[in-house]
Write a structure and sequence with these properties.
heterotetramer; A mainly alpha (495); B mainly alpha (657); C mainly alpha (215); D mainly alpha (305); A: 495 residues; mainly alpha; two-stranded antiparallel ribbon; C: 215 residues; globular
């Protein structure tokens, strides 16, 4: 067992310990602190991965069952960061309820346990080198998170039901894809590692191309359902709008990326099996394009703030998928966009949730002038939505610019036109909503009604500064890191 | 060069400093605006003294900018310095003006932060020599001005205005994307220095894209819709900065793109002349129909951008037909008008701000007779009003004269009929614009400052603080100086004009003689005016002066509300141009035989570009989007069907097509 | 002989699919799906004999226990709590559903001749049963008007993945196999729990009460 | 006696311009069958006004007091660019046309704001109409003078007006006729305005100076007659036959033509009624079309087809 494997074991030990400690406690406030502690430990574990794996970049663990390379490391770091800040936010989110005793200990217990399990299985998705294991852990995220969405509200049950049904159907399709991948690889000389990504990508030229293409279609539809690619995204606005805010935040900020990560794993194998004729990419491109269009069509007619943000996630997942489908610089843009979108979307959900709780409604027409009444969240909501809308200078703008550039230089003018039109349509309606929410009409003589916690302020400012910074300058180490990750999705990509 | 960058950094830092302070901290009154003004003054002096070395400087990054292509390249050339100078002047005057303007309504502590980032963004737009750098600076500029527009939270319409403004700015950025991609498509580089020699059909596309991308910022018709909304909403010194120089960044962009493409096509010039005539005439007509003082000024900015386009159009046409005189004078007039308009428009906006600050209202028809309580403001405002009408011996005249002379050369000296027609059209448009502008500004000045107060409730008691007056005096003095001594401004013009006209062998003696002669005439005029005045004065000393009421044609009780209002003043004109500027009348009747309350009548000129064209487009999109709502029907079975259909479609696509 | 049996079982699975399409009572639906679960166990037993693999036997036992007994038991317990008419009540009528089911099954045989993935299956019957089960499972979900039938549809759809997975099972380590099974079982169980929640909150299993989140 | 042109022309305007008004008045009197006032009556009126005291409205500000001086000076200065005796030194530069017309616009600007300064609704109405007319006259003047400049191939109006004039009668007609209309409109003559009254129907120029008195009114009246002189002079210059005459004879003929123009103005005023205000734009638009036609003819002549 080497150092990295020990780290992995330690991380899961922490999860186990954290989960176990939850069973005993009855104090909701303490229960909510457990995820903070375990996620900070896991965050450190992610940093340890970064340090430990650096010279080789790609490390196989536990006899090839797990893998850590730049691509997964990027996502792991993102997951850990998002979970850490969301756990911290959660303690504040439930603060009011704890104060007046509305939060039951049983709920807090269930939440903490499921929360940590959720993070654990998400990390397993990213770590797995075995295609079966990846499928298992992604399916497990559905099961675990379904109970995070559900509450006593009628609508939340409806959302949970749709989430369960649609994602399960999708994931079964992904199962067909996974099995077909193995079937496609059956003709290989050695059938030892046909279920290992590392083996498949090393020997991709021996895979049956037509079967692999079929498998890839099913994988894209299956994992795409979970990732929120249109037209399989239908569960997403429901689940995001009904889930408690921290859950919506990690759904958007992490879970969708993880599902897309699975597609990123299959993409290079399919491409290589098909002799790099771009068929696999075109599928991803089409799905991304559809997502963008659907989001642009549906965002203008939303009335629920979290629903709007959910559709915004569909848009951004679409943008990332377009980048993946383009290849080369597009993948770089997609990865950069993943980072930017996660950070900003998490902030947007935090603030939208807090504002909605403060006003007692999620209907956008009833929320006005939030930046006066809840200054921290009102301003954060506006700024993070600006970032999401792709306003410069921000990381999201930079990646969208790179993507547009790649679209132009690969001659996809029609997609470029629709990309610009779609983002403009989103911008158009989202700006109207966010401005009304943050600065709209309202009794202005009333003073500040609620100030945020200091720790939330620190989180918000750190994230916003990071987003700004990444929009202006990508330091060389990060750039090389991203380029490494790009080369995993597309070998020898021209950047 | 390094000085400029360091000063920009200091600007941003002082803005950041203001973020850390409490809302009502004392330093907002003096230190931070003072620091901004000092930095800009220093920079201005540096540029003027070191002009020769500044215009040729460039600067590459001292650290590599890690994006796959972008380099941090700065540069200054005569063209950008020409825009930098008025920008710095205006910043100085509006940062001096700002603190006292807010005496009654202190702004949020973010105000000066966004103010400084706006200035820094504009400087960086002028400095950047790389497309990515340019777009980012451009967005910083738009973003901070957007925040400044919505910073006045007492007005509900400022949110609406900010929204409209930011939408147009963002649409412009989308066009910028396309423009820069097209420009860089030859060798994939985003450095301005590599963008040369773009010809043929591609250059025409580049030109049209530039027109759309930068036109949305410059605000000529039909891209003007945000201007009349955003300017009234912003605090006045911000409107001064925005209308004075920020919209000129759009002009800068168009001119900058013109330096990348050659040879010019004549039809670009015709297009610009058509657009210029359209926005010139319609802009001033809309202005004449408005009631809000700042909205009038905003529409007048549309008009002046139109004049600048007319000059640029003549310049392009001149180059295309090989007439150097026409080209040189056209470009020179356009550029000089950029400088001039920035001066007098900021002066007028600051004056309007003074009026709004003292009366608490922007409604022109409620004012009157302000000249008695605010004589100095009135004098400064009058200076701006005369200058903006392009009347002689003020700066507006000098630039319009250059464009006129360019047209005269084009329509008289050149054999090509097309050039002659272009010149004639420009002259007719300019003449019409001149007449209309005179109407508009006599109306504005007359209604606000002259006559009797129409509503005693909003009549101010005293003059504005002297700091604000000094801030207004800076552009006012420059307006007069440039008007009288335009000769000395010419060296600034030659550099950018050479770059635009694409040749450096033009003999500038002709233009110099025009400038000299008009200076002489203005001196002669001043002397003879003084002589007449002296004669009147000396002869008038012995005469009796009687004060009485205005002749009332026998009516014994004239009331102030019987005065001609601005609406009635504009009525004949609006009625004449009822096609492009429809007057909407609202009459609230009471149907009783003996009405208890008086009928209320209200008339306004609606901007049918906004209410007609753009709103219709958006509505139709909205309808189309709403008709797709069935897709997300809420039925889980239907959603599963989507998944199945997607699989089948993808399989058919990949295997059977 | 063994491949003959395999073909018969596969055929029986298709027949059970058609039975599910035609049954109008929820109770008979549950019975049908339980029967199908047992058929799956038989299939994997046959496969085990086919390739002499011990863990397929384990799989067979597990699937009979969970799919044939456990889940049907929970489902029927759930149905007993339903106050309204315990009718399947699909969107598309039973005869037409049957017809479509037959078309899907025929199409499955047809497509297996053409498609590139024929050699992924042990036999044509095996493959056709997988595809037909998948199609009919989806069809059941899509046309359902109540939650129970949707669960059953999903169960059928998942059975297809089981049939499909059987042909590839040999190449996976055991823990992956077990994980897959447990995951799907857990998924269905959670659906049942969610359906119970729906029943307690809405007093109904109709999906009409689950259509409020739209646009 | 070799004074430069830019001194002679204003001097001539100062000395002779009231005479034009006198001629018009006599013509009108002739048509009315009256004996009419003295030919120099305008001089007497002006002298009387300059001797009078001031009466100012309490509403007015310094704008009202300063305006007459600016209006007078600007109008007078604009005469510098039209040669009276075409032999002296001139100030001519490219674009002097613009300066000349914009000086008139400057005068008009101050006339309008001084009218608004009184706060009277009558004067406001006059100011509004003055502004309204100017919008339509300016393009017409520009076009007329442009075709003359095009025919002479010079970019300076001073050069163009002192050099040999248009060769063919069509061009002469197409620039002179619109210019005559503009003359009538700009100088508040019938059929655009009635110079004799400030009654409501006609209130334009006369109503704007309603509150002026004494020397101020004198300056404004003087400026009005200088403006009339300026337009007549331009028209006279266009109509002047271009034969090789001595400057003295030429000036005499010019004066005769201007006298004739005054008679024509008087005749028009006697035989026509004032047209309705809404018809004014149509009339001026017609004049503009004629001027454009003249310019097109000039342009097409130069093009080698």
């Amino acid at each position: 067992m080497n150092l990295i494997e020990i780290t992995v074991v330690l991380i899961y030990a922490f999860f186990a310990g954290g989960t176990a400690s939850c069973f005993r406690s009855k104090n909701p406030a303490k229960l909510l602190l457990v995820p903070v502690i375990s996620s900070s430990a896991v965050f450190l574990g992610g940093i340890a991965f970064l340090i430990e794996t650096r010279p080789e970049n790609t490390v196989l663990l536990f006899g090839g069952t797990l893998i850590i390379d730049s691509l997964s490391l990027l996502h792991i770091l993102l997951v850990n960061t998002i979970f850490l800040i969301t756990s911290i936010y959660t303690t504040g989110y439930f603060r009011e309820k704890i104060k007046c005793g509305a939060l039951k200990a049983s709920y807090a217990k269930r939440f903490s346990i499921l929360w940590q399990t959720f993070q654990a299985v998400l990390l397993l998705v990213l770590l797995s080198n075995n295609i079966g294991l990846m499928w298992i852990s992604l399916e497990a995220t559905t099961i675990v998170s379904a109970f995070l969405i559900i509450s006593d509200a009628e609508l939340s049950i409806e959302a949970t039901w749709k989430y369960l049904l649609i994602c399960s159907v999708g994931i079964v399709f992904a199962f067909f894809g996974t099995m077909l991948t193995v079937a496609a690889a059956r003709g290989m000389q050695s059938s030892e590692g046909v279920y290992l990504f590392s083996y498949l990508s090393a020997n991709a030229d021996e895979i049956d191309p037509r079967l692999m293409l079929l498998a890839f279609i099913l994988v894209v539809v299956g994992f795409g359902t979970k990732a929120g690619l249109s037209p399989m995204h239908t569960w997403l606005p429901d689940a995001h709008s009904q889930a408690p805010t921290p859950v919506s935040a990690v759904f958007s900020g992490v879970m969708l990326n993880c599902a897309l990560f699975c597609i990123m794993r299959y993409l290079p194998i399919t491409e290589a099996a098909l002799d790099f004729d771009g068929q696999a990419r075109s599928i991803v491109l089409l799905c991304g394009f559809m997502s963008l269009i659907f989001a642009a069509v549906f965002i203008p007619i939303q009335s629920d703030v979290k629903r709007m943000l959910a559709y915004c996630s569909v848009e951004h997942i679409g943008i990332i998928a377009i980048g993946l489908g383009l290849g080369g610089l597009g993948i770089f843009a997609a990865l950069l966009h993943t980072v930017g979108h996660s950070l900003s979307k998490v902030l947007a959900f935090f603030s939208a949730g807090s504002i909605a709780d403060h006003f007692g409604t999620r209907e956008m027409k009833d929320i006005q002038c939030a930046s006066h009444k809840v200054p921290l969240w009102g301003n954060t909501f506006f700024l993070s939505c600006l970032v999401l809308m792709g306003v410069a200078p921000s990381a999201v703008f930079m990646s969208e610019f790179l993507l547009a550039k790649e679209l132009f230089f690969t001659g996809k003018y029609i997609i470029l036109a629709f990309f610009l039109l779609g983002t403009l349509a989103v911008f158009f309606s989202m700006l109207r909503y966010t401005m009304l929410i943050s600065f709209g009409k309202g009794p202005k003589e009333q003073g500040v009604e609620s100030r945020g916690r200091r720790v939330d302020t620190v989180i918000v400012i750190t994230c916003l500064l990071l987003l700004l910074f990444l929009g202006l300058w990508i330091p060389a180490p990060l750039s090389n890191f991203l380029k490494d990750a790009v080369s995993i999705i597309e070998k020898g990509a021209t950047l | 060069m390094l000085t400029v960058i360091i000063c920009t950094l200091i600007l941003v830092l002082s803005g950041l400093l203001s973020l850390t302070l409490k809302r009502d901290h004392i330093s907002f009154k003096h230190i931070i605006p003072g620091a901004i003004a000092t930095v800009c003054t220093f920079l201005l002096i540096h540029i003027i003294i070191d002009y020769k070395s500044v215009i040729a400087s460039s600067f590459s990054a001292f650290f590599s900018w890690q994006l796959p292509f972008a380099n941090l390249v700065f540069g200054l050339d005569p063209l950008s310095v020409f825009f930098l100078i008025p920008m710095l002047i205006l910043t100085v005057s509006s940062s001096l003006y700002g603190p006292r303007y807010f005496d009654k309504h202190p702004p949020g502590h973010k105000h000066w932060f966004f103010f400084s980032t706006l200035v820094a963004g504009m400087i960086l737009v002028l400095l950047s020599r790389n497309a990515v750098m340019f777009i980012i600076s451009w967005e910083v500029m738009s973003l901070s001005s957007f925040f400044l527009v919505i910073s006045d939270k007492d007005k509900d319409e400022s949110v609406q205005a900010g929204w409209l403004y930011f939408i147009t700015a963002h649409v412009g950025t989308a066009f910028l994307f396309a423009l820069f991609f097209l420009l860089s498509s030859t060798d994939g580089s985003f450095d301005f220095s590599s963008w040369t020699g773009i010809t043929g059909r591609k250059s025409s596309v580049v030109f049209l894209l530039a027109l759309a991308a930068f036109g949305l910022k410059a605000g000529f018709i039909p891209f003007h819709i945000w201007l009349p909304q955003a300017h009234p909403a912003a605090p006045s010194h911000v409107s001064a900065l925005m209308s004075g120089i920020m919209i000129k960044m759009g002009i800068y962009g168009i001119l900058r793109v013109l330096t990348f493409i050659s040879p010019y096509q004549a039809w670009w010039g015709f297009l610009l002349i058509a657009l210029g005539a359209l926005s010139g005439i319609l802009g001033v007509l809309f202005a004449t129909g408005q009631h809000d003082i700042k909205r009038i000024l905003a529409y007048s900015s549309v008009e002046n951008i139109g004049i600048i386009l007319l000059g640029t159009g003549m310049g392009i046409t001149g180059v295309a037909y090989g007439s150097q005189t026409v080209a040189f004078l056209g470009f020179a007039g356009a550029l000089l008008h950029v400088l001039n308009h920035s001066l007098f428009k900021s002066l007028l906006f600051l004056g309007a701000g003074a009026v709004i600050r003292q009366t608490g209202s922007g409604e022109v028809d409620h004012m009157g007779g302000l000249i008695r309580t605010m004589p100095k403001t009135a004098l400064l405002f009058l200076t701006g009003a005369i200058a903006i009408c392009g009347l002689p011996f003020f700066n507006g005249f000098t630039s319009e004269l250059m464009i006129y002379v360019s047209c005269l050369y084009g329509s008289i000296k050149e054999p090509q009929a097309a050039l002659a027609m272009a010149g004639l059209c420009t002259i007719i448009s300019l003449a019409t614009i001149g007449g209309l502008a005179a109407t508009c500004f006599t109306r504005l000045f007359g209604t606000v400052f002259l006559g009797e107060p129409r509503y005693s409730a909003i009549t101010p008691q005293k003059e504005i603080p002297s700091m604000m007056l000094w801030a207004m005096a800076i552009p006012a003095v420059l307006c007069v100086l440039i008007g009288m001594l335009s000769y000395f401004i010419l060296p600034l013009l030659t550099g950018p004009v050479y770059a635009l006209a694409g040749s450096t062998n033009y003999n500038t003696s002709g233009i110099k003689s025009i400038a000299l002669t008009s200076s002489l005439v203005s001196g002669f005029f001043l002397l003879s005016g003084a002589a007449v005045f002296l004669i009147m004065w000396t002869s008038g000393k012995k005469k009796v002066r009687t004060e009485t009421v205005t002749w009332d044609c026998g009516y014994s009780r004239p009331a102030p509300s019987m005065q001609y209002t601005s609406s009635s003043f504009a009525a004949p004109l609006i009625r004449l141009f009822h096609f492009p500027v429809a007057m909407k009348k609202h009459l609230s009747k009471s149907d009783d035989l003996f009405p208890a309350s008086s009928w209320k009548f209200f008339s306004a000129v609606e901007d049918w570009f906004l209410t007609g064209i753009y709103t219709t487009i958006i509505r139709s999109f909205d309808r189309a989007f709403s008709s797709l709502r069935w897709f997300q029907s809420g039925k889980a079975g239907q959603y599963v069907l989507y998944i199945a259909v997607t699989v089948i479609c993808l399989i058919i696509w990949k295997f059977y097509l | 002989m063994k491949s003959d049996l395999l073909a018969w079982v596969s055929l029986l699975i298709i027949v059970s699919n058609l039975y599910l399409l035609s049954s109008s009572r929820l109770a008979s639906l549950i019975k049908g799906v339980a029967f199908q679960g047992i058929l799956l166990g038989a299939l994997s037993l046959l496969m085990a004999g086919h390739s002499a693999s011990y863990h397929l036997i384990f799989l067979a036992i597990l699937s009979i226990a969970v799919k044939g007994i456990l889940i049907p038991f929970y489902l029927s317990k759930l149905v007993r709590g339903v106050k309204e008419l315990r009718d399947a009540n699909p969107v598309i009528g039973y005869s037409l559903s049957m017809f479509i089911g037959v078309v899907i099954s025929c199409f499955a045989f047809y497509i297996l001749q053409k498609a590139p993935f024929v050699h992924a299956f042990v036999s044509v019957f095996h493959g056709a049963s997988a595809i037909s089960t998948a199609g009919i499972g989806l069809f059941l979900i899509i046309t359902s008007r109540n939650v129970i039938r949707q669960i059953i549809g999903f169960l059928v759809f998942e059975n297809a993945s089981f049939i499909f997975g059987l042909s590839i099972a040999l190449y996976q380590p055991l823990f992956v196999e077990m994980g897959i099974l447990l995951d799907t079982f857990a998924g269905v169980l959670i659906m049942v729990i969610a359906a119970k929640r729906i029943l307690t909150v809405h007093q109904s299993i109709s999906v009409r009460s689950l259509e409020r989140l739209s646009k | 006696m070799n004074l430069p042109e830019y001194i002679i022309s204003p001097l001539a305007a100062l000395l002779l311009s009231p005479l034009l008004a006198g001629i018009i008045n006599r013509t009108k009197a002739f048509f009315a069958g009256r004996k009419g006032q003295h030919l120099f009556q305008v001089y007497f009126d002006l002298a009387r006004l300059f001797r009078k005291d001031y009466v100012f409205s309490k509403t007015t500000s310094w704008i009202f007091r300063v305006s007459p001086v600016i209006i007078f000076t600007a109008t007078l200065a604009s005469t510098c660019f039209v040669p009276f005796i075409s032999s002296g030194t001139r100030i001519s530069f490219a674009g002097d046309l613009v300066l000349m017309l914009y000086l008139l616009a400057l005068a008009r600007f101050f006339l309008i704001i001084s009218a608004l300064d009184t706060g009277s609704s009558f004067e406001g109405m006059g100011a509004s109409r003055e502004a309204f007319f100017s919008v339509m006259t300016e393009p017409v003047i520009f076009t007329c003078l442009l075709s003359i400049m095009r025919a002479n191939g010079t970019v300076s109006i001073t050069e163009a007006l002192s050099a040999p004039m248009l060769s063919d009668s069509i061009s002469v007609l197409l620039s002179a006729l619109p210019l005559f209309f503009v003359l009538l409109a700009e100088n508040s003559r019938i059929p655009f305005d009635d110079p004799n009254t400030h009654l409501e129907l006609t209130m334009i120029h006369e109503v704007m100076i309603l509150d002026n008195s004494g020397p101020g009114l004198g300056l404004l009246e003087y400026a009005a007659s200088v403006k009339l002189w300026l337009f007549s002079l331009i028209l006279g210059r266009i109509l002047l036959p271009s034969t090789g005459m001595s400057p003295f004879v030429q000036t005499l003929i010019l004066l005769a033509i201007m006298g004739l123009i005054a008679v024509v103005i008087g005749t028009v005023e006697s035989v026509m009624a004032r047209i309705r205000l809404i018809k004014v734009p149509q009339m001026l638009f017609g004049a503009g079309v004629a001027a454009l036609l003249g310019f097109f003819i000039n342009v097409t002549k130069a093009i080698p087809w």
